[in-house]
Amino acid sequence: MEEARETLMPMARQADMFFPGLEEARLLLGRPEADAGEVIDKFLAMGIPCVVLKLGLEGCIYATARRLRGPPDHGRS
Fold this sequence. Notes:
The chain is α+β, with helices and mostly antiparallel strands and 77 residues long. It has helices at residues 2-14, 22-29, 36-45, and strands spanning 51-54, 60-63, 68-69. It has a three-stranded antiparallel β-sheet with strand order 1-2-3, with helices on one face.
């Protein structure tokens, strides 16, 4: 997992849009207990301009530093 993290995180930081699933994002961040809001905040803090966090059957959350859209029970903290 560490090798994947070392490869994927620098690429994610250079992307205009990052589109991970919630479980994938937790693994990349090394935060298995993180909720959707924490995951989004961490990626935005890394300088990724747009994060689309996939939530399976619940849909997704679209977030930028200025805007958040998605299921209401998965908002940012």
